[in-house]
Structure to design on (850 residues):
C-alpha cells in the first residue's frame, strides 16, 4: 500500500462510502489471516492490522457446523466480556448479523459467527467459522466498534482499488437512496415499490397507516421531511449493502428517529433495485398490528411532537400578543392599543369605542403610564383563551397592582381581547 | 317501462353487465317498497316484482340499530329455512355481505341485513333494516338465487337507463379486468399494483409464493393461463362492484378454480383503479402462512395436476412408441423398425446393426409377421423406462407367446430400445 502522503489512496473494494467521520470498518482477509481496521476521517486510514484466525475449512460458509467463515458484509450486534463467555472466546466477543438477508435467501444457514479473543495461542485457520484475535488485539479494537453501525467485511482476498474509482458508484447509490426516500416523503406506495426488484416483495401493509399519519402531520404542520443520514455503503459480490439512519423532521426542528435501515441493492437490467430491506437490528415487521414498525412508531411520535409544538406556538403567540398590548399601552400608542380589542368587546359597561376613548383620556391625562405584568397564565379553550396575570400599573397620577384577566378570541386570524376585568389587590 | 318487444330495453342503472345466462339480480327500491328480479337471458328481463318492506327509518344505514336499510350492491351469502329461524323471518331468509368493503371503509357498521319472509302481514317500512317479503314471494324468488353470485342492489330510487347506454362502461371495465388479469399471468407485482388506487394498499405478500409457483408451472408445462369468467358488473355511487370467478389453466385442459373475486373499481383522475379487493365469500388473507389464499391454493393444486399430466403424457408417449414399434415390425417396415433402437443397443449378443439385420432376414423369410401385445406395463426410472408386456408373435413360419421386456432410454428427444429380452411362456 502507498503511503498516506501519496495522492491516491487505495482501499479494499468492499468500501464504497462512509459518511460519518470516525466510523470504522473491519476487514477480514482469509487468505492472509489478517484483520484490518479502516477509519474514515475525510479519507480512509488503515489504523490497525492484526493477525487473526478464521474457520478451519476454506470456502464460503454454507451450513451450520461446516467450520467455514462466511463471506460478505456483516454488522456487529452485541458485545460480551469474558465473565459472560466460555474461555474459548477469550477476553471479549462481538456477535454479528450472519446470516443476513442475502445469506438466508441463498439458503445459507448456521449462526453465531463472532469476532472474539482467545485464551489459547492464536493459530491460522483454527476456528469453527468465527474470527479470532489475540485478547490484546481485540481489546484494542473495541474502541472503534459501534454496535449496529460498524461493518465487518469478510472476504477471501482483498481487492484494493483507488479511492476515487468508487466515486461514481457512491453518487449513483446516494441518488438512488434519495429517490427512495422521496417516495416515502411524498410518493405513492407504487412509486416506492418501483425501486424494488420484481422478485422481491417487501412488507408494505404499513404504508396505509404511514400514509394516514404522513398526511396528518403535513396537514397539521405544513411540513414533513424524511431524512436519511450517516450513510455507509459497502459492496460484496456486486451487491451493495447500505446502512443509514432514517429521521423524520417537522416544524420547530422536531425530529423523530425512525431506525437504522439496511438495504441490499443490486443492478438488475442496468438499473439499481432493492433486493432486500431490513432494519438493523432486524425488527419483526410481520407483526400483524404493525406496532413494531420503526417508521410508524417514529411518525406517531412526531405527530405528538408536532401537536405539542403547535400548542407551544399557540401559547407563545398569545403571550406575544399580550406583551405587545402591554407595550402599546405603556408607550402611549393608543391606536395600536385599540387594535388588540375585538369588535364585540364589552367590559365594565363599555363597548370597544367607549373603552378605547376612556383609555385615551387617561393616556392624555397622565405624563406617563407604565404597565408591567408577571405570572402570565394562559388557558386555551374551544371558544378562545383565558389569560390572567399580575399587573403593576404605574402612572404620573395613579398606581395600582392586581390581577388582570383577559378573555381572548380569534378574530381575522389574530387574538383579540373580548373582555377585560381587573381586581386590585 | 316499455314492452319487451320494443327495441330499446331500459334497466336499472345499477346493472352494468351480467355474463352468464340465467344469472339474476335482485333490485330493492325503497321509495316504492318494491323488490324486482332481473334475469339475464341475452338481454335483461324483469321476471318478478313484489311488494317488500324495508327499514322503519329512511336514509342510508350507518349504525347498528338505526333501523335503516343500507344502499349499495350486496351478495347473498347463506340461506336458512324456517325451522332454523325465529318466527319473525317467516319461511326463509338469505343473509347478505353487508357491511361490504366500501361500507367498512366509510365507517358504516351493523350487520345481519337479510332478505327474509314474514309471518305477519307485510307492511311498508316495517323492518329493522332487513328487506322482508311475503312468505309466498320469497319462496318464489328462491329458485333464482345463487349464493355468493346473485347480487341484491338496494337503492332509494331506481334510475332506469337504456341497456345500450352502459355498453362503453362494460367494455372499459372488461378491458381493465383483462389488464389486471394479465399482470397476474405474466406481470410483476409492481405492474399489478399499478392498477390499485394509491390510497388502498392490498395484501401482496402472497405474490412471492405466487411468483415461484407460477414460474414452476410455466417451466414444467410451458403454459399457464389465468382466466376470469362469469363477470357480473354492478354500479352504485360511481363505484363498480365486479364479481367473477378466477380459474387457472394449464396443459391437458387442467383447470384449478381460484375463487370468486369481488373488486371495487372507481375512476380516479379519469383512470379506473381498484379501491377494494375481496374474495366472495371473504377469505382471511391476513393469515400469516398464506395457507388460505385461494390463488395460492389453486396454483399449488394446478402444479400437482400439471405434474400428473406430465407423467400421464410420458406414459402415453412410451406406450405410443411401443405401439408404433409393433406396427413397424408387423408391417415389415424394417427401416422404421430399426429407428426404434438406440445406437448402443445390445441384447442376445448382438449390437444394433446385427440385431436389425437378423430381424430383416426373418422378415424376408416369412410371408407375414404379425405381432400383438397386451398388458403393457411401464415403469419410469431415473435412467430410462422399463416396459414389459405379453407378446403374441405369429408368422408364416413360427409363432410364439411370452413376456417381452424392453429397456428404453431417451435419445435425441425420443424413447429408444436399449435392451430387449424375451421369455417364451
Amino acid at each position: 500500500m502507498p503511503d498516506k502522503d501519496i495522492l491516491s489512496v487505495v482501499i479494499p473494494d468492499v468500501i464504497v462510502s462512509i459518511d460519518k467521520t470516525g466510523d470504522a470498518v473491519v476487514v477480514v482477509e482469509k487468505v492472509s489471516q489478517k484483520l484490518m481496521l479502516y477509519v474514515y476521517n475525510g479519507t480512509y486510514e488503515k489504523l490497525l492490522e492484526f493477525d487473526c484466525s478464521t474457520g478451519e475449512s476454506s470456502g464460503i460458509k454454507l451450513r451450520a457446523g461446516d467450520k467455514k467463515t462466511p463471506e460478505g458484509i456483516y454488522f456487529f450486534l452485541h458485545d460480551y466480556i469474558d465473565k459472560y463467555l466460555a474461555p474459548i472466546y477469550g477476553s471479549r466477543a462481538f456477535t454479528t448479523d450472519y446470516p443476513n438477508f442475502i445469506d438466508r435467501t441463498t439458503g445459507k444457514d448456521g449462526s453465531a459467527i463472532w469476532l472474539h479473543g482467545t485464551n489459547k495461542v492464536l493459530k491460522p485457520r483454527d476456528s469453527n467459522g468465527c474470527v479470532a484475535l489475540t485478547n490484546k488485539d481485540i481489546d484494542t479494537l473495541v474502541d472503534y466498534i459501534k454496535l449496529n453501525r460498524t461493518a465487518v467485511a469478510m472476504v477471501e482476498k482483498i481487492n484494493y482499488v483507488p479511492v476515487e474509482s468508487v466515486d461514481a458508484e457512491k453518487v449513483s447509490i446516494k441518488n438512488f437512496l434519495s429517490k427512495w426516500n422521496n417516495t416515502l416523503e411524498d410518493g405513492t406506495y407504487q412509486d416506492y415499490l418501483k425501486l424494488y426488484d420484481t422478485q422481491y416483495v417487501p412488507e408494505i401493509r404499513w404504508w396505509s397507516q404511514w400514509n394516514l399519519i404522513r398526511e396528518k402531520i403535513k396537514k397539521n404542520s405544513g411540513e414533513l421531511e424524511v431524512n436519511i443520514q450517516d450513510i455507509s455503503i459497502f459492496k460484496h459480490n456486486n451487491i451493495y449493502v447500505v446502512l443509514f439512519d432514517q429521521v423524520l423532521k417537522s416544524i420547530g426542528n422536531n425530529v423523530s428517529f425512525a431506525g437504522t435501515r439496511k438495504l441490499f441493492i443490486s443492478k438488475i437490467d442496468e438499473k439499481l433495485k432493492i433486493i432486500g430491506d431490513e432494519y438493523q437490528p432486524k425488527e419483526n415487521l410481520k407483526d400483524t398490528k404493525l406496532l413494531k414498525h420503526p417508521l410508524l412508531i417514529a411518525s406517531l411520535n412526531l405527530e405528538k411532537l408536532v401537536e405539542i409544538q403547535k400548542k407551544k406556538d399557540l401559547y407563545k403567540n398569545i403571550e406575544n400578543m399580550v406583551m405587545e398590548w402591554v407595550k402599546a399601552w405603556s408607550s402611549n400608542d393608543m391606536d395600536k392599543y385599540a387594535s388588540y380589542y375585538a369588535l364585540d368587546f364589552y367590559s365594565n359597561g363599555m363597548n370597544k369605542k367607549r373603552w378605547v376613548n376612556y383609555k385615551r383620556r387617561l393616556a392624555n391625562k397622565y405624563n406617563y403610564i407604565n404597565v408591567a405584568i408577571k405570572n402570565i397564565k394562559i388557558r386555551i379553550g374551544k371558544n378562545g383563551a383565558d389569560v390572567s396575570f399580575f399587573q403593576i400599573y404605574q402612572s404620573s397620577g395613579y398606581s395600582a397592582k392586581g390581577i388582570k384577566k383577559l378573555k381572548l378570541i380569534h378574530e381575522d386570524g389574530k387574538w383579540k381581547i373580548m373582555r377585560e376585568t381587573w381586581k386590585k389587590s
User: Anything to note?
Assistant: DSSP finds eight helices and 21 strands in chain A. Chain A touches chain B at residues 188-190, 193-194, 196, 198-201, 203-205, 207-208, 211, 286, 288 (CB under 8 Å). The longest strand of chain A covers residues 254-268.
